[in-house]
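User: I'm putting together notes for a lab meeting next week and I want to include a structural view of one of the chains we've been expressing. I don't have a solved structure, so I'd like a prediction I can at least talk through. The sequence is below, exactly as it appears in our construct file.
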Amino acid sequence: MTIDKRHVCVLMGGVSGERDVSLESGKACATALRGEGHQVSELDVGADVVERLLSIKPDVCFNALHGPYGEDGCIQGLLEIMKIPYTHSGVLASAVAMDKLATKKALTQAGMPFASDKVVARGEAALGHLMSPPYVIKPIADGSSVGIFVVGEDALAPPGEEILAAGDEKDELLMEEFIPGLELTCAVLGDRALDVLEIRPSGGHEFYDYGAKYELGGSEHILPAEISPDIYQIIQKWTLIAHRTLGCRGISRSDFRYDPENERLIFLEVNTQPGMTQTSLVPEMAAHAGWNFEELVNFLVEDASCNR
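Assistant: Thanks for the context. Below is the predicted structure for the 308-residue chain, given as structure tokens.
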């Protein structure tokens, strides 16, 4: 396949709590794109992003940002205004997928099952149980398991001081029923659902938190996941439905919890900007499907456009 060589600006870093991971993702993608013959500029995104892009004059922006301002529709809207083609999902899909409540509303209508939940203020969540444990407390709009607390079945109270230390007491948080069992994920590449992967936290991590995601040895990946063919196919089907329902582009990854004992499968969330580090899931799933890292990033550049 002949690749159209372009001037690609890799957007990375940013101002979210996932800055370090974004820098790692961006540098890995920039190295791969240079190896494929593209002219590559690396841009650590800050308040001067417009001036920097006007100076760089790229043909395409490769979006390697994670978290707020990078995968919530903000940078996508800016690139639309500047008429610079970009990778991954567009404004609307990015904004909806980043907001867990908006995602639930959209995908519940599409038939996806979710855990029971309630929206609470951070200050209220820190005071005592507002839901029978076990349950999970998480930000409504953030990624990479930033700010997540799992309250165990035997906990006398939630970790109040830690919850309060993580943000303003008036912040709205999502409190969800904890689903025991397996952590499963599946990705869409283009218009194809890839194989299902099971994530087993290790190295002292009790669940798939930020450390388990990005520390070497933080988790064990089972690919393909060792689950029944029926559940496997349902996950692939729902992942593709979620991608299409939200209007995602390029790649997306959907996460699930599966309780084999009660045969209960729950949809968690959609990630429109999956990590691209050496421990990231999508490059691993793509490799299993026969795509090396260079082919993956080239596909995203070729797929880039405005009006996404």
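A couple of points you could mention at the meeting. The domain at 97-114+179-293 is CATH 3.30.470.20 (D-amino Acid Aminotransferase; Chain A, domain 1). The longest strand covers residues 251-259.

User: Perfect, that's what I needed.
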